[in-house]
Amino acid sequence: MRRTAVLMSVLLCLLLVGCRTTRESDRRFTVSALGFDVSGSDLVVSAEALVVNSESTKEEITKKLFTAQGKDAADCIFKLKQKIPKDIQLAHCTVVALGDTVEGKALDKVIDYCAENREINLSTHICTTANAQQLLSGEAASTLTVGYELAGYIEHAAAQTGVTFKSRLYQVQSARLAPSPAFVLPRFSAEEDGCTLIGGTKVQKNRKAGELSLDEVGKDAK
Amino acid sequence: MSGRTSDYRNVKISGDINADGQLFDGIFKNDAILRRRRIRSRSGGFECLLLYMDGMVNNEIINDSVVRPLMTVEAQVPDGDRAQFVREKILFSNDVGTAATVDEMLRAILYGDTLLIVDKSKTALTLNTKGWRTRGISEPSDERVLQGPREGFDEAAMFNVAMIRRKLLTPDFCVEVARMGQRTETLVFICYLGTLVDRRALGELKKRMSRIDMDGVLDVNYIAEQVRDNRGSLFKTTGTTERPDTVAARLLEGRIAVVVDGTPVVLTLPYLFSENFQSDEDYYLNHTVSSVGRALRYICFFAAVSVPAIFVALVSFHPQLLPTSFAISTAQLRGGVPLPTVAECLILILVFEILKETGVRTPQSLGHALSIVGGLVVGQAAVEARIISAPMLITVALSGISGLMVPRLKGAVFYIRIAFVLAAAMAGLYGYLAALGIVICYIFSLRSFGVDCTVSVRRFTRQSFKDIFWRAPWNNMYRRPAFNKNAFRMSGGRRK
Predict the structure, then answer these.
(1) Which of B328, B387, B421, B442 to mutate to test the interface with A (most CBs of A within 10 A)?
(2) Residue A66, C-beta contacts closer than 8 angstroms, at least 6 positions apart
(3) Distance between CA atoms of A36 and A46, rounded to whole angstroms?
(4) Is B141 exposed, middle or buried (0-12, 13-18, 19+ CB in 10 A)?
(5) Per-residue b or e along A81-108, where b marks 16 or more CB atoms closer than 10 Å to that residue's CB
(6) What is the distance in angstroms between the Cα of B326 and the nearest Cα belonging to chain A?
(7) Does A19 contact B428 at a Cβ distance shorter than 8 Å?
(8) Residues of B with CB below 8 A from A58's CB?
């Protein structure tokens, strides 16, 4: 009787853990980067995803860019999920790119959404660019996806040139909560043959306060 | 008559060898190998009847020690007990007993002794003329060592007991004998060291053995399964070995050995859970070397039961915990595989078990071909045909190979592995951790003859850990296992 009770309570605990939905790894889109732009009063999200053909017997993996438009970041992601045939997995998203149009309240809401979304890793980099959709739709030179290449640029810059951006989501969030919120995000330009780290964007009180070259970013960090 | 030896418990011989010969002829009427010979003494004073089983006796001993003296010695037979006279004055045999009832006589004949019925005597003589062939001493194939004694038991219990005794040259070595099996009347020897044995465990063993009621005992497992605690348990609560050195070492720790006639496997008890991870070689190699092996066995046990479950949980439920490149390559390699991860895992585990069992049962000459076909050809073809994914194959293979490191837990590993995979498939890492918790609690609840199987870990002292996760140097292991209250200190070594 006691054994049955223990087993039943263990089974009950298992049913209550909320870990009941499972998706096969090849039946998910792994998002490598998210991009946000403002279009009119709406927000546009671009998700660069790795796509595995679950029906193909070849080990092929391709990248695709999905976009969706919504009132805010949560609405965008919700609509994005509705549009695509498989689940999306944001856990391996390494970069959130913000277009120049994302400023003020929009910037505030996007970063808040990213920080509150349990799927998005707190070590995800935040960067800026003129147009996030354009940046993510380009080709990557060293990896399959632009997202992983952007992260590679940021980490390479820190290792080789000493230019360290405090651009991870938790660092940005902590800077935003400081009494005088100011932080520098890495800035990328989208070019024909790929993307390039061109410097940094200084953000003060949710407004872009200016662009810095890589040298200036290094000095600013010191 | 039920056909058992005990049917003749109250039957006695008449003293007339014609009638007694007919009695035995009647008992063995369908047994063609019973041999009988009637001998008249040289002086003609008396007649004897010799009964034995062909093939079970040593003919030279019978001829030299029994037949020759009976036919050559001239002696006047006194009026008293003739059998006693023959025993004391005529026979050359060193081991002569007397049997008063027919069941004793039958047991002697059936165990390879020779029965000598002397005319006009109400008791018969039993002569130790055992001479059946045995397999001989060879190294047990499942307990091979690189260094150390290479002798193993064979199927003759008496020789097995002698092999143990040869290692324990002490009068403290006690051997009790019992017969088990209503029809087989198998000899069972209970061996222990009188001053070291845990009397409570010994009493419990005898009590449980006395309750066994079955027709035949052909192997030690017939007894082990009926006397062990937690009968339905996947984990062993009685130990087995085919090595006399292992039995001797366990007796020195205050344990009990049960030797059963007809099998080279000896039962030892009480059995601690940590014994599953001990190897005989641990004690014959340097402690630094053997401690690595011991630690590896624990790691491999954990890997054997957990790796597939953790993989299933991570891939199906928690891909965010995987490194990005690993998550992507796993997804890529799974492309085109029709089965869900959990089904793929369970099927592969079953296939591995089939291959393992086939390998054990297949003749050695076919073993290599089987491993090539089974392991390489089928495995590679299945991955290329996208029936299974390569990461899953690697995971199950790693788990399977790790399981081979702990052969004493091979049955348990299979079931726990499956249970963990199912738990992980139900609730991810939470399910796996819950199942792991249940198994750990269960292991800590195991008992063997009144002893907690994890008693050494529970004690949580430096000394109690010295032969569990690693093998400490001999001079540091100065206490016997924690379960034995009678045997607190070992001889020698540093004492604190």
Answers:
(1) B328
(2) A29, A46, A47, A49, A80, A83, A84, A88
(3) 6
(4) exposed
(5) eeeeebebbbbbbbbbbbbbbbeeebbe
(6) 11
(7) yes
(8) 335-336
pLDDT at A18 over 80: no
CA quadruple B311, B313, B318, B319: dihedral positive or negative?
Answer: positive
Bridge partners for B395 per DSSP:
none
Q: Which residue has the tokens 């090595």?
A: B243
Instruction: State the Cα–Cα distance between residues B444 and B451, nearest whole angstrom.
Output: 11
Give burial (CB, 10 Å; 0-12/13-18/19+) of B323: exposed
Tell whether B339 is within 8 A of chain A (Cβ): no
Closest CA–CA distance from residue A174 to any residue of chain B (Å): 23
Total-model pTM: 0.82
For chain A, the residues whose C-beta falls within 8 A of a C-beta of chain B are 10, 13-15, 17, 19-20, 22-26, 28, 30, 50, 52-61, 89, 91-92, 94, 119, 121, 148
- In this predicted structure, the answer to whether residue B187 has a pLDDT above a threshold of 60 is yes
Structure tokens at B99: 């049997």
Task: Give residues 348 to 407 of B whose Cβ lies within 8 Å of A.
Answer: 385-386
Name the residue among B334, B429, B438 with its Cβ closest to that of A25: B334
Q: How confident is the model at residue B359 (pLDDT cuts 50, 70, 90)?
A: confident
Determine if the peptide bond prior to A85 is cis (ω within 30°).
no
Contact B334 A24 (CB under 8 A): yes
Q: What percent of chain B has pLDDT over 70?
A: 97
User: Which of A26, A27, A94 to mutate to test binding with chain B, by most B CBs within 10 Å of its CB?
Assistant: A26
Q: How far is Cα B198 from Cα B206, in angstroms, rounded to an integer?
A: 13
Give the three-state DSSP class for B304: helix
Amino acid at B252: L
| Amino acid code (one letter) for A124 | T
| Those residues with Cβ within 8 angstroms of residue A13's Cβ, 6 or more apart along the chain or in another chain | B434
Which residues of B are less than 8 Å from A48 in CB distance? none
Give me the DSSP letters along chain A: -HHHHHHHHHHHHHHHSS------GGGEEEEEEEEEEEETTEEEEEEEEEEE-TT-SS--EEEEEEEEEESSHHHHHHHHHHHSSSEEE-TT--EEEEETT--HHHHHHHHHHHHH-TTS-TT-EEEEES-HHHHHHS--SSSSSHHHHHHHHHHHHHHHT------BHHHHHHHHTSSS-EEEEEEEEEETTEEEEEEEEEEETTEEEEEEEHHHHHHHH-
Token code pair at residue B224: 């082990």
ipTM of the complex: 0.79
* Contacts of the segment A1-8: beta carbons below 8 A, 24+ positions apart: none
User: A11, A13, A25, A30: which to substitute to probe chain B, counting the most B Cβ within 10 Å?
Assistant: A25
Neighbouring C-beta atoms of residue B43, cutoff 10 Å: 11
| pLDDT tens-digit map of B78-123 | 777 788 888 888 888 888 899 989 999 998 998 889 999 988 888 9
Q: What is the identity of the amino acid at B184?
A: T
Tell me the angle at which helices B287-316 and B341-361 cross, rounded to the nearest 10 degrees: 140
pLDDT band at B491 (very low <50, low <70, confident <90, very high): low
The number of angstroms, rounded, from the C-alpha of B272 to the middle of its chain's C-alpha atoms is 16
Residue B132: C-alpha distances to residues B66, B195, B432 (Å): 18, 35, 55
Q: Which residue has the tokens 């001989």?
A: B136
Distance from CA of A40 to the nearest CA of B (A): 34
Rounded to an integer, what is the distance from CA B476 to the centroid of its chain? 30
Distance between the two ends of chain B, CA-based, in angstroms?
Answer: 64
- Out of A47-56, A180-189, B433-442, give the one with best mean pLDDT: B433-442
3-state secondary structure of B240: strand
pLDDT in tens, A30-63: 899 999 999 888 899 999 988 877 666 666 788 8
What SS3 class is residue B330?
helix
